[in-house]
Design goal:
The protein is mostly beta strands. It contains no helices and 9 strands. The protein has a 5-stranded parallel beta sheet, with no helix packed on it. It is globular, with a radius of gyration of 14 Å. The model has no long low-confidence stretch (mean pLDDT about 90).
Length: about 140
């Protein structure tokens, strides 16, 4: 995927799971004021975190803009879980400071990802109240 704009999605903006190994470059995702919950939700395989093929995409030049999202769920910039092994480079995860929107759960939530395989390089995080959803992330 190259050059994509996702604005006010109903669920997740960039949803990756079950062995996705593609490339995403030049993406902008903006969660809505009353819709959407995660700008990026990533999973491996919920039944077996080591099942192949792994979800191991490469994302570059991605901008995730936070907002309140659906009232029934808490919005988050990126959620990684279930053995996800993605590589995220030269990107920004931030509250939408121009329009005044903010993620409720911060920029990043890592649950059950492969920490030795998940890579973030040259990424800016700017969310309140915290950049990370939980202290153990």
């Amino acid at each position: 995927i190259k050059y994509i704009l996702v604005n006010g999605q109903d669920d997740d903006g960039l949803d990756q799971d079950l062995g996705f190994r593609g490339w995403i470059q030049y993406a902008i995702v903006r969660t809505g004021t009353a819709n959407g919950n995660r700008s990026m939700e990533t999973d491996g395989n919920g039944d077996n975190f080591d099942a192949t093929p792994y979800s191991e995409p490469i994302l570059m030049n991605v901008t995730l803009l936070g907002n309140e999202g659906k009232t029934s769920v808490d919005s988050t910039g990126a959620l990684h879980r279930e053995g996800y092994r993605g590589h995220i480079y030269r990107s920004i995860i931030t509250d939408d400071t121009v329009a005044g929107g903010a993620y409720r759960n911060g920029c990043l939530d890592v649950d059950d990802a492969k920490p030795s395989e998940l890579q973030y390089r040259d990424v800016i995080f700017n969310c309140s109240p915290d950049n990370l959803h939980a202290p153990d992330d």
